[in-house]
Design brief:
Number of strands: 4
Shape: globular
Order of helices and strands: HHHEEHEEH
Largest sheet: 4 strands, antiparallel
Distance between the termini: 53 Å
Number of domains: 1
């Protein structure tokens, strides 16, 4: 039987998804699709978005592993990326923790939140993704630059846990 181009493409996608690790599947789910509506966020709204993403990642990992995940292998983290009002400096908050939300808000006060950065462990490697609040070329460039720095921070945090 000869497969059409569409059938071959679908078979290839299915095979690719089956061969992906849990971390890569979750990262792909969170970064693919339509970009979010562009909007400026207050510090409180940015921390709320970080909390929501943190819970979403946890839920997706649990679903992808059918609840068989182990604490030793599991690692993921979320932080809020920001730029100063004069656009002279980039940064990101401390990693999201339930008890550290006030600290994140204080770090964002006086700055412009531009998106979320998140990391998910895939074996020894940490995959980093971004979800912008404002969808522009400049924001994408800033988030790419911050993702490199965040990757190092995530590696350090994971080693300390």
């Amino acid at each position: 039987m000869v497969l059409t181009v569409k059938e071959r493409r679908e078979a290839g996608r299915k095979r690719e998804l089956e061969e992906m690790t849990v971390a890569k599947r979750v990262l792909r789910q969170l970064t693919n699709g339509r970009p979010p509506a562009s909007e400026l966020r207050t510090p409180v709204a940015a921390v709320s978005a970080a909390r929501t993403l943190h819970r979403d990642i946890q839920k997706r990992i649990e679903e992808a592993t059918n609840g068989t995940r182990t604490r030793a292998r599991e690692y993921f983290a979320v932080t809020v990326a920001y730029v100063t009002p004069d656009l002279s400096a980039l940064g990101f908050t401390s990693l999201y923790e339930e008890a550290g939300q006030d600290r994140m808000e204080r770090m964002l006060t006086g700055n412009i939140p531009i998106g979320l950065l998140f990391g998910i462990a895939d074996g020894k490697e940490i995959l980093v993704g971004a979800r912008p609040f404002i969808v522009t070329k400049q924001t994408d460039d800033w988030l790419k630059e911050l993702a490199i720095a965040a990757h190092s921070e995530l590696e350090i945090d994971r080693a300390e846990r």
